[in-house]
Hints:
By secondary structure, chain A is mostly helical.
Amino acid sequence: MSEAAVQGKPVATGSETVLAEHESYARMVWRRFLHHRLAVVGGIFVLVLCLSAALAGIIAPHDPTNLDTSKRFIAPFLSWNHPLGTDDLGRDTFSRLLFGGQVSLAVGIVAMITTVLTGTVVGIVAGYRGGLIDTLLMRFVDTMLCFPQVFLLLVVAAFVTPSLLSISLIIGLTSWMEVARIVRAEIMRLKEQDFIQAAHALGASATRIMVRELAPNIMAPVLVAATLKVATAVLMESYISFLGYGVQPPLASWGNMLTNAQGYFDTVPWLAVLPGVMITLTVVSFNFLGDGLRDALDPRLKMDQ
Amino acid sequence: MLKFILRRVLQSIPLVIGVSIIAFGLMHLAPGGPLAVYTLNPTIQAQDIERIKVALGLDQPFHIQYLRWAAGMFSGTWGNTFFGGRPVLDVILERVPATLILMGSALSIAILLGTAIGMLGAVKRYSLFDYLATTGALFALSFPTFWFGLMAIYVFAVRLRWLPSGGMYDLGNEGDPIDLLIHLVLPTLVLALVLVATWSRYARSSFLEVIHQDYIRTARAKGLVERDVLMKHAFPNALVPLIALFGLQLPTLFSGALVTETIFGWPGMGRLFVDSLTMKEYPVLMGMMMFTALFVIVGNLLADIGVALADPRVRLE
Amino acid sequence: MSELAATTSLISIRGLKTYFPIRKGILSRVVDKVHAVDGVDLDVRRGEVLGVVGESGCGKTTLARTMLKLVEPTAGEIQFNGTDITHLSRREMAPLRRQMQIIFQDPFSSLNPRLTVGDILATPFEIHGLAEGQDMRDRVERLLMLVGLRPEAARRYPHEFSGGQRQRIGIARALALDPQLVVGDEPVSALDVSIQAQIINLLKRLQAELGLTYVLISHNLSVVSHIADRVAVMYLGRVVEIASRDELYFSALHPYTEALLSAAPSSVPGRKRDRIILKGDIPSPINPPSGCRFHPRCPKVMARCKTDDPALISPTAGSSHAVACHLHNP
C-alpha cells in the first residue's frame, strides 16, 4: 500500500478557508451565547458562586458553627463583623450562606452527574439496542415518571440515613428519566446514520459504537440538560433539607437555614429572606445558563422552533 | 376511536403493574421493613413481631407478598394504618377533595393566564411583552415554591394581615365557602406561579408552530381579518398539544401541591404524605404512592383521548 | 453450493432473502414484511468489478448490506472465501470484517462529525489492535496520501471538507484494513458530476494497485459502465439479468434491462436507442406481484409471466450471460 501512496497526488484542501470556517463555528456558538444576555449574567453568577463556595474557608469571617448567644439576631448591614447579621444562635449568616452554598452546589453537581450518567447510559443502550431492551427500559422510565418526583424523593430520603452523598444520589436517581428520553431520541436519529454502519462494518463492538461513536454526538443536548439539572437538584436539596430529610444540622445548607428561620418568621424575616434569595439566584442562574447554552449549541432544540 | 381508546387503555396496564412493583419494592427498602414501626414500640415483644409477621404473611417470599398485596389493592383493601388501624384508602380519600380544590383552582388560573400570555407572546414575538413574559417565566420556574410561599405568608398574612396564613377554614367556620375561598387565595397563587410559567412557555411554542403553518398563511392570503385568523384558525389547533400537557403536568402538579400544602397547612394529600413520613406510616405512604401514580396514569390516558378526539391524525398512529 | 464455485468466487450468495418486518400494535405483532431482497443468487469472482444496477427501492442497498452482514439475512446462504458466514454472530464476524469493507453513498452521514479525520482513520486499527502510537499515525498518513489527500487532513474534522474529499476519506477508511472485497453502495451518486469522474478514477486506480474485488451498487448504468467487468440488474429484490458489461450493454435480453438502457445516455457515440417508457410504478415490495415480478410493467408480457416465476439461467449453455425471463428460457 505504501508504494501506491507515493503515487497519490495530493489534492488541495484549501487549508486557509477551511481553518477560517472551523474557527467561525466556535465563534458562532460563543456569539450566540453572548447574544443571550441573561445567560451571560447567569454564567457570571455561577462562576462567582463556584469561586465563593470553593474559597468559603478563606472568605468566611467566622466559623459557620460558632455559637455566640450574646450576639443573637443581629440585623444585616449593621455590623462590619457580621455583614449579613446573625441567627437565633448567634451564628454569622454570611459565613453560613457561604458554607451552605458549598453544600448546595456540591449536592447539585453530584446529583447532576448521577442524573446525566444514568440518563445517558439508559438512553444510549435503549436507543441503540432497540427491541426488547428498549421496550423494557423505556417502560421503566414511563413508570418512574408516573410518580411525582417530590413524593419519590421524600420516601427514599426518609428511609436513608442522610449524608451529602446519599442526598445527592437520591436526587440524581429520581430525576434521570427526562435525560434518558432526550438521549434516546437523539440516538434513534443518529443510529440511522452511515457512520454507525461504517463502524459496524469495521467490526466495532456494540459497546465501542455506543461509547466512541454515539456518545460524543449527544454532547450538546446532554450539556444543556446537565446545566438545567443542577438547577432542579439545588431546588430539591433545599426543599428536602427544609423538611428535615436532607442536609442535617449543624452542617449549614440553604434549605435547613430556612427551617430554622421559619420559627422566628414574624420577628426576624431577614433570616428567611437571605437563604431564599440565594437559592432563587442560583437556580435562576443555572436555568438561564442552560437556556443560553441550548440556543448557542443546538438551535434545533430552541423552544420557539 | 373506540379502538384507539381500547389500545390506549391496554397500554396503561403495564404502567400500573410497574408502578405497583416500584411502590411495593420501595416499602420493602424501608429500614426494618414494613414492621419497623413496631420495633420502636417498647410494649411489643420480639415474638409478637414474629407473630404479626406470620399473620400478615410477611414471612412469605417477596413475589408472593407482592401478589397478595396487589390483589388486595385491586379489590380495594389497601391495608390499615399503623396508628389507629383505619383503612388506608379511607384516610387518603378524605384528603382528596382538599387537594383537588387546590390543584383545580391553581390549574384553572394557569390554563387561562398561561394560554393568554403564551398566545400574546407568540403573536407579538420579540416584543417587550414577549421578552418580559419569557424571562419572567424562567424566573418563576426557578423560585423555590416553599420559600415563595413563606414570603407570601410573611407579606400578606403576617405584615398586611389581609389573608390567613394557613389552614382551610378558621376555627368554627368549617364548611363556609367564603372562608374557604379566603383561605384558598394564597396557596392557589403560590402553586399557580410555576404552572403559569410552564403553561405559557408551552402555549407560546405551540402557537408559534401553528402560526407558521401554511394554512394560516392561506387564511391571511384569503384576506381574513387578523383576529379571525388567530381565533378561528390558529387558536383551536394550537390548543391540541396543550391538552397533552395537562396530563404531562400532573406529576409536577402533585409535587407542587405537596410543597404548597406543607407550607400552608392545607389539609390535603401532600400534608398527609409529609405527616405520614414523620410518623413512619408506611401503609399510608405506599397507598399514597399508588394513588398519585394511578391518578397520573388515568390523567394521561384522558389527556391522550382528548388529544385524539381533537386531532384525528393521532388516532391513526 | 459446489466446491468449484467456492474456490473461484470470493463471495457467493445462494437464495438470499432479507425481509424487514412491519410491526403494529401494542404487542408489536409482525403484520407484514418488506421483501427487500427476495431470493438472490450471485457469485463475485476474485479480482473482478461487479456492478449491481436497479431503480431505487429494488433492494440493491439491502443486498450490499446483507452481503456484508450489516443486516441479518432472513434466509439463504452467504459464503465468503469458502466460509459460510450466514449465521456468524457479530463477534464471530469481527475478524472477517478485515477482509470486507463498504463505501457509503452519503459522504456527510458516513463520517462521525465529532471525530477528527485522523481518529476516523485510526478506528479500524484500534478495533483490530493492529497498530498504535506513531506507527498508527504513519499508517493514517499513508492512507490519506493513498486516496489523494494531504497528511494534514488528519487533524481536521469532516465538516471542513467537500463532498468529494469526504468520499476520499470514506474510501481510505474502507481500505485501512487491506480488505479483499470492497462494496461501494452508490459511492458517487451523492457527488457533483465533475467529482464523480475523479472518484471513479480513484476507485479504478486503487483496484488495479491493490488487487481489490469490487461490488459497486448504482442506479446509474453509465457510472457502472465505466468500471464494471460484469453487471447484474436487480428488480424488486431479484437479479433479473447478469452478464459481462459488453454483453449487457450490446445484447441485453431482459425487457427491464432494455428499458433501463434506453433511458441511460448512450455510452457509445452514434448509437441511439429508442426510449422504452415503462408503464406504472415499481410495485410495493410488501406484496410483490405473482409470477415474474416485472410482468405488470413488461411491454412483452405473456400469459405464463403472471403465474410462473422465471429462474435466472443462461439461454445458451456455457455462457455466463444469465437472464430470468420466459422469453429467453422457454
